[in-house]
Batch of 3 targets.
Target 1
Amino acid sequence: MQQLVAELEQARIGYVRLNEPLAGYTTWKIGGPADLFLIPGTEEELSAALTLLHRHGVPWCVLGRGSNTLVSDKGVRGAVIKLGDGFDDVRFEGNTVIAGASYSFIKLSVMSGKEGLTGLEFAGGIPGTVGGAVYMNAGAHSSDISRILQSVDITWEDGSRAVLGNDQMAFSYRHSILHERRGIVTRAVFRLANGDRKEIAAALASFKDRRLRTQPLQMACAGSVFRNPPNDHAARLIEAAGLKGQREGAAEVSQLHANFIVNHGGASAEDVLTLMRRVQQTVEQTYGVSLVPEVLLLGER
Ligand SMILES: Cc1cc2nc3c(=O)[nH]c(=O)nc-3n(C[C@H](O)[C@H](O)[C@H](O)COP(=O)(O)OP(=O)(O)OC[C@H]3O[C@@H](n4cnc5c(N)ncnc54)[C@H](O)[C@@H]3O)c2cc1C
Ligand SMILES: NC(=O)C1=CN([C@@H]2O[C@H](COP(=O)(O)OP(=O)(O)OC[C@H]3O[C@@H](n4cnc5c(N)ncnc54)[C@H](OP(=O)(O)O)[C@@H]3O)[C@@H](O)[C@H]2O)C=CC1
Ligand SMILES: C=C(O[C@H]1[C@H](O)[C@@H](CO)O[C@H](OP(=O)(O)OP(=O)(O)OC[C@H]2O[C@@H](n3ccc(=O)[nH]c3=O)[C@H](O)[C@@H]2O)[C@@H]1NC(C)=O)C(=O)O
């Protein structure tokens, strides 16, 4: 690892830390340390970092805002990559928006509305990055990334780069090709339509109001814990099974939204996983439905 760190520093990879605690990089505020934590600032630095990691046989993963991720208490063996400043930009060209992968998805939504462009209103309350949103095909209010994405710049794990069009992304409900082939989104291009600024602002405000009423936004959480089963809602099943308010340590099935698990402060990943298993077992026994996690588990168990 010492040799790898020396080579990363020689290649001027912006930010390299050993044993970096990850809890602060997730919205659940949970998780142990990463052996190695890298913040490449440019595509060149990213490619160089991936090449060196590959050469040294060190496994890696990429973290956006950590708003859909549960990091294990033992943390991550290998490297965690977080894209830096060179990926935090946005520009508008006619009806097209080009955004860096670490750009805030919420800010992208608000900025597009201010430009009089419609199509990204659904993203107003999704507190992740553009890269995480593409990976997840994030969606809300009957829309998702697949409806507006034109193309994506990707760096594959061998350091090579490609541009993939929407039809090459294998999008489906909370799924993209990146679940099957390891690569890092560096930039995304969205095709929007001309709209009325006031109407877009009104739609954003109404979605925001609905979220504030129905989701525990002020609490540390990671959005919906389970995917919705076909033609139903995980939240409906969890509430009907009497699980709202169930606790394990400082983790609780939210009283406001049954498919959210909130951290009251100091919850461990094991607390959350124990609660998730209890929810799955109870819903399976009561309704015969297997709930599948939407949140992603990262790190050593
Ligand atoms: C309050 C709240 C509300 C939410 N509401 C919604 C909602 O309405 N709809 C919805 O879909 N989600 C929602 N979420 C979940 C979450 O915000 C989304 O899944 C979001 O897209 C995750 O983005 P992120 O950057 O935080 O990803 P992370 O959690 O950091 O990562 C998620 C996955 O994406 C991968 N990834 C991250 N960046 C990249 C990249 N640059 N290239 C390749 N892979 C990458 C990671 O490796 C990981 O596998 C909500 C979460 C919260 C806390
Ligand atoms: N529960 C959790 O674990 C987490 C929840 N969140 C929630 O996500 C939202 C965004 O948080 P954050 O990324 O830190 O950004 P901020 O709350 O700092 O807001 C950044 C910008 O986005 C706007 N904005 C925030 N929410 C919305 C929305 N739903 N619709 C439209 N515009 C919005 C804000 O406008 P304005 O000031 O006018 O609202 C502001 O201009 C907040 O509601 C926050 O509570 C975020 C992170 C973790
Ligand atoms: C938050 C996420 O996305 C959210 C997205 O914000 C919203 C809005 O479009 O729709 C999905 O939630 P959801 O299906 O729970 O939507 P909601 O409108 O909140 O609830 C649906 C229905 O479930 C029932 N419901 C909801 C909450 C609750 O505590 N109890 C309950 O019974 C209600 O009948 C309600 O009508 C996405 N979740 C999934 C897993 O698809 C996420 O993916 O992280």
Target 2
Amino acid sequence: MASTPRVDLDGNPIKPITICMIGAGGFIGSHLCEKLMAETPHTVLALDVYNDKIKHLLEPDSLPWAGRIQFHRLNIKHDSRLEGLIKMSDLTINLAAICTPADYNTRPLDTIYSNFIDALPVVKYCSENNKRLIHFSTCEVYGKTIGSFLPKDSALRKDPAYYVLKEDTSPCIFGSIEKQRWSYACAKQLIERLIYAEGAENGMEFTIVRPFNWIGPRMDFIPGVDGPSEGVPRVLACFSNNLLRREPLKLVDGGQSQRTFVYIKDAIEAVLLMIENPARANGHIFNVGNPNNEVTVRQLAEMMTQVYSKVSGESSLETPTIDVSSKEFYGEGYDDSDKRIPDMTIINKQLGWNPKTSLWDLLESTLTYQHRTYAEAIKKVIAKPVAS
Ligand SMILES: NC(=O)c1ccc[n+]([C@@H]2O[C@H](COP(=O)([O-])OP(=O)(O)OC[C@H]3O[C@@H](n4cnc5c(N)ncnc54)[C@H](O)[C@@H]3O)[C@@H](O)[C@H]2O)c1
Ligand SMILES: O=C(O)[C@H]1O[C@H](OP(=O)(O)OP(=O)(O)OC[C@H]2O[C@@H](n3ccc(=O)[nH]c3=O)[C@H](O)[C@@H]2O)[C@H](O)[C@@H](O)[C@@H]1O
């Protein structure tokens, strides 16, 4: 029985394309590859230095999509194959980056090189070869909210005009240069400006994505299990690690910063719409987040503790959280975004996308995955005698 042909948002049939996906072996890349293999006819050239998170899509040869995904182990800093792979593709998606805050102030050079310098050839090859580019930026380009500079008791702090982040009107407010936290946001902002200029001056077709805290299974690593023992991943993995080890969750500077979290599977739907609706997505910068899932980091810690107790069957600790200073946790030069609520007008208008999953539900499925994947491994690590 012939299946119904897939159509875009304007009712036109979708033609199979080849996508050069750089950074395909990471958290977002692995989910995007999964979606493209399971639900579309497109081919993916998956480029990364690692492939552990997409191994299940590459082997065995009998998988239904075998032949539609090819892994190329390469570092885009120095590999002459890059241009050829971009030329072979209809679309390039660039996800490659250093994107863990613990690196921004401690490895600022690597951070700036990774997020700006290393992305330059990708933009250049796309522009010179008339290839479409979807580039992953970040909500961190907004920096701090205007409201954060108002007096603490100002009524204006409650006015959305002072904190909701809009692609076409919000300013980008970073801290001083010695606050090296902003090395990442600043590098991302400059590459956004370069891509925008390639579009304006040379007609390059582009879409820029600004993710707002996408979270879910396979995000980062659990220190000492599938990543370095001293490594500091993003907050979901930090708190998961604490819960798995039955340690208190560490709240940086009291956990007062606010974030909106979106489920990776919802966010990937938005990326697929961008891939398959170029006429609606080209030339746009899109916020992709869930404005309904806002919490302080302290509330996130409390909710994760409750959810983990439910999915693991273990009781919570008597003291589930402890406070830690940002200097102690991240070192000199750390600073923070105070609040991040995405305005959804543009993505709604262009692609009709809306996030669906509540914070509780996304934490339930993610922590079920974390428990299933890591609980036994953690027990073994803890049981191992420490070498003296
Ligand atoms: N996860 C989020 O919520 C989020 C939020 C904002 C922005 N982003 C952006 O989205 C992109 C992907 O993020 P992620 O969460 O999947 O991160 P990730 O670290 O899991 O994935 C990045 C991947 O890029 C690869 N990579 C890095 N440098 C490379 C190089 N020189 N050559 C080849 N491969 C290289 C890494 O090996 C990794 O697999 C990044 O650009 C990040 O800045 C993500
Ligand atoms: O995900 C995003 O949208 C972007 O934001 C993240 O930045 P941030 O949200 O600050 O990073 P997290 O590590 O997820 O931290 C969130 C908050 O939790 C706090 N935190 C983190 C870890 C921890 O153990 N305890 C803790 O209180 C941090 O200080 C911060 O306030 C990263 O910069 C990028 O991956 C990305 O560009």
Target 3
Amino acid sequence: MNLILLGPPGAGKGTQAKRLEERFGAKQLSTGDLLRAAIAEGSELGRKVEGIMARGELVPDDIVVDLIAERISSPECAKGFILDGFPRNVSQADALDRMLGQKGAKLHAVIELGVDDEILVSRIEKRASEMEGAVRADDNVDALRKRLKVYHEQTAPLIAYYGEKGILKTVDGMADIDAVSRQIEEVLETAA
Ligand SMILES: Nc1ncnc2c1ncn2[C@@H]1O[C@H](COP(=O)(O)OP(=O)(O)O)[C@@H](O)[C@H]1O
């Protein structure tokens, strides 16, 4: 099962990706998590992306495309993958298409979690206040606004991109976590 979870920051992609991982044995690949791990390690890559991420901007395509290309063919993805945070623009989606073409693999579905901007801002503020000292560098209101702007300008066009390919499934991301999971299971049954 090869899936993409699409949706704005704070839509709950990570939470649903973890649940899908348990359910199907497919591997969650979160570019945000991979980049944060590189920063935590203090690697050259981490140093390169740290400031960009803190500002809520996108890191260069070649960096995230390489991160994904490396993992998608690894044994951990033997049962498939759940992409969370990638692709984030059309050029990344085209790169993914080429990668999958080379492997002879295909995407089963792209699941869009639909959420209102206002609800997102309050979710992120809540996340920031709950995490206190451990807050992510980009979980402040300015960076969030920037991330939402980038989402609308660069990532939202992927809704039409995958809609045209006939593999887009939209669920209501504002429902509670279990209800979102159930909706995803339902749309996957029809996608199989
Ligand atoms: N596919 C990607 N392309 C470019 N930058 C990315 C990508 N994935 C993650 N990032 C960087 O990591 C940051 C955090 O991403 P992520 O963890 O997915 O959080 P969120 O969905 O809450 O914004 C982004 O704002 C961006 O700087």
